[in-house]
Amino acid sequence: MSDRQYHLKFDGDKAAAVDAYLEYRRIVGDDDGGELFNPDEYDTYKKKVLPMRLKNRLFTSWTNSSGMDCKQIGPETPCFCQHRYKQHKTDFETVPEERPISLPCQVRGCHCTSYHYIPLMGGTGIRCKCKHPAEEHSEKAPYRCKKSVCQSCAGFRSSYTCGCGSPYNDHEMIVETQEEREARGHPVGMATPYQAMGGLTGYSSLAEGYMRLDPSGRGAPSEEFLKQEITSSDHAFLRGAVPSIQAHRRAIKDYGRLDEDMAERMSSLRKPNESEMDFYERRYQERLKAEKSGARAIQPRPGALTSKRPTPGGSTSSRVASGMRAPSGRTIAGKGRGVPRS
User: Fold this and answer.
1) CA 70, CA 63: separation in Å to the nearest integer?
2) Region labeled Disordered — which residues (predicted)?
3) pLDDT attached to residue 333
């Protein structure tokens, strides 16, 4: 690999020329037919296309049934037909009135009638339940298998599960205008002259829906979650922010909260003559004790099923049959013994 690597150095003028070419490629794409426009043709193209893109931009996303945009489509996002989103028709002088809006592939010989996202697992696409990959299926819906030995495939259906928890077939492609996207409460970002930007509205659009904290993803975390104390069991990135948080509390004279985690900070230090193994064992036992005490303190939710079991003293104790929430955020599922099954 080392003999194939090239290290190019440019002065200021040549670097500016490279930047100008990259911007040209983002604006024009493949509309020049493989031959670069001359300056006059480039200016004519921009005068015709840029106002149209700023006015009639279409936002494309792969959305689950609850409205979360699990995948924001960008120029390089692959389609079911194995071509990129930028190789489909995305510029319209007038936005079509029919819904859903079709974005046909513009590659010669491709029969794809509208862009359709296909998830990737690593560097390869997912497979249908007929065991064949997407490229061995038809480019037209319902995307039947083209293998002659595969007669039972009525359409592409996959066992793939998205990061949001919904299966592949519980998603749909949404192509919408700016007004329609704003009506859903999803961000539209800034106007851009680049070709085939799809649903990209910022850096967070590159993340999957269940990781995005904007309205198009899972949304912002609750205030209770943001205000919880940072302990030694949290990620090192969070623990590194503790000194600055304490400094802010001292600056605003919030002495009550300043000493809330004093016991935790003292416990996180090794005691004199305490070995490393004893230290980690003590911290582990403290964490188990905290989790158990927190679980015992949780009361059943209103309407939760409970089961009664006799105790040696003759009284009865209740066991919550539904899930309980542990302090760490994990769900502890109750056994639910004695609860009749439906």
Assistant:
1) 5
2) 288-342
3) 42
| pTM assigned to the model | 0.68
Domain that holds residue 139: 57-211
- Number of domains into which the chain is organized: 3
Q: Which residues pair with 320 in a beta bridge?
A: 306
pLDDT (average), residues 221-242:
76
Provide the Cα torsion 177, 180, 185, 191; round to 10°: 20
The span from the CA of 336 to the CA of 342, in Å, is: 13
Tokens of residue 229, six digits: 């104390």
Beta carbons within 10 angstroms of residue 268's beta carbon: 15
Tokens of 221: 């975390």
The pLDDT score that the predictor gives to residue 303 is: 45
What are residue 69's DSSP bridge partners?
Answer: 63
Question: Do 95 and 44 have their domain in common?
Answer: no
Of all residues in the chain, the percent with pLDDT exceeding 90 is 53
Cα-only R_g, the chain? 29
Report the pLDDT averaged over residues 156-172.
Answer: 94
In the prediction, which pLDDT does 207 show? 93
Residues 156 and 42 in one domain: no
Residue 218 burial by Cβ neighbours in a 10 Å radius (0-12, 13-18, 19+): middle
